[in-house]
Amino acid sequence: MVQGVKKESDKKKIAYSYWSKDKCMCPVCRKEFDREVMLSGQGRMIAGKLTDELHRIFEPSKKYGRIYPLIYDIGACPNCYTAMLWSDFKDMKNKDAMDAMYMHSEKRKASVNTVFPYFDLRRQRTLFDGCAMYYMALLTYDDANLEMLPTMKRAFLSLRLAWLCGELDQRCPGHNYDYMAKVLYQKATYFYQQAVINETQRVEKSSTIANCGPDMDKNYGWDGVIYLCGLLEYKYGQKNDQQLRLKKLSESKTAIARIFGLGKSSKAKPGPLLEKSRDLYDKLSLEVRDDNI
Predict the structure, then answer these.
(1) Start-to-end C-alpha separation, the chain
(2) pLDDT tens digits, residue range 208-250?
(3) pTM for the complete prediction?
(4) Hey, which residues does 59 pair with through a beta bridge?
(5) Which stretches of the chain are DSSP H helices?
(6) Of 227, 228, 231, 232, which is closest to residue 262 (Cα–Cα)?
(7) Is residue 232 packed enough to be buried (19+ CB in 10 Å), middle (13-18) or exposed (0-12)?
């Protein structure tokens, strides 16, 4: 071998994450598992545009390629297939919820394996594994108690998984992940609207959640939730019953108008949200008006 020339196997492997020294204790099965943490420096995260769904696109870099920060926001226990936001592994206290999650462990594993076969919870995660973990989390929160605010969490987790499935479809077309994304957008529409209903009826204090996201780069708060209720209904809501659609769009238009009023009198409101709300308001106004002509 010529001196100074390194074999491909000798080259330093590009790292996207590392294993934390602090293991995570699963409250459901009471077993420890490794926590994976994303590395974010050295040009890994190049922020691109913000979509109308408040999703931050990260541009691929020459060294690291395309990265997916969202996939590291979920923890998944490889022993009992409980998946949640990392903070919930520490905060969870309700025994009934934990018992239900444990009882449905194998069912969750089988359900996830049907959609994302051959996922692996013990290796450094890929986009595919990350999608599996998000789907596993949606199933886990089905058994959560109201104090965990499961409706709001399933709302933004469904939306995030729709984004991730869209990415997966681009990189692995022909496996119906585009259809999966469509179904998840519809689920997100339902959960966002149900979270607002639960908040209004004081069934579930969804507005008290620490970070409404929906993405990881910025918290758009409850105003962002109201905006997304209208946007998702406009883009992914049912269209079979036109009268019902117009009623929901009209209600969303009124809610968006309230955001304008608050935004004009408060410098604390996020500028991008106001801009996108105005754009959505114009689209809602146009559709409602056109159907009434």
Answers:
(1) 79
(2) 999 999 999 899 999 999 999 999 999 999 988 999 999 999 9
(3) 0.91
(4) 46
(5) 86-91, 95-103, 105-115, 127-141, 150-171, 177-200, 221-236, 242-264, 271-292
(6) 227
(7) buried
